[in-house]
Amino acid sequence: MPGNIRGMSSSSLIAFADDVAVVATGRTTALLEESMNMNAVSRWMAKSGLTLSVSKTEAIMLTTKRGYTQPRFFLEGEMLQLKDHVRYLGVEV
Fold this sequence. Notes:
Blueprint: E1 3-4, E2 9-16, E3 19-26, H1 29-35, H2 38-47, E4 59-60, E5 73-75, E6 78-80, E7 82-83, E8 87-88, E9 91-92
Parallel strand pairs: 4-7
Antiparallel strand pairs: 1-2, 2-3, 5-6, 8-9
Protein name: Reverse transcriptase domain-containing protein
Domain Reverse transcriptase: 1-93
Pfam family, one: RVT_1
């Protein structure tokens, strides 16, 4: 599910077994929020016979910027809380 919005943002879907990661980039908070379209991921998974659990979905922000507007990511109408760290495939990020 790659995307590119005016060359300033992108998103990629990485999947292994039943673990899925969405990696999104954006030069601005608005572009990042646009590229991190979790509802599109949910629709793609449903078409593939998979389900996405809102309660098990985690988000983390990785940046080198000292000051930025914190993005808001939504899935099925619920805002995902940003975590300080997540575990994906046994690796702590």
